[in-house]
Please model this.
Amino acid sequence: MFYDGECGLCSGSVRWFLGRDRHARLKFAPLQGQTYASLAGREKPRGLDTIVYQDGSGLHVRSTAVLRAMLALGGVWRIVGRAGLLVPRPLRDAIYRFIARHRLAWFGTADACSLPTPEQAARFLP
Model:
């Protein structure tokens, strides 16, 4: 999962996923980092106003990225993700874009971040 490493909402979302990913299925990297930059030759968003999720079927952005990551969590979150994917993408993405436009004003920047545990730190890529 690629996220804006300077966004407070995005950093909070990563913490949320870390706390619910009991099987350590997800890995995380900032959109500003080397891992995301190394995805050469692929269609990828250039802006920082989205979360990007990569799985076996490719790159997913905005609301689809969040819902696909929820599928990976399993359990009740898989059900929530599947239900969310039933909502038409244009509607989901309109809501996502509205929140993304206001995320820095509402949630601020990630000036200070919590330190991950050693197990969590291994799941962060540059």
Q: What stands out?
A: Strands lie at 2-3, 29-30, 52-55, 58-61. The CA atoms of residues 2 and 29 lie 5 Å apart. The helical segments are 8-20, 34-37, 62-73, 75-86, 89-107, 118-121.
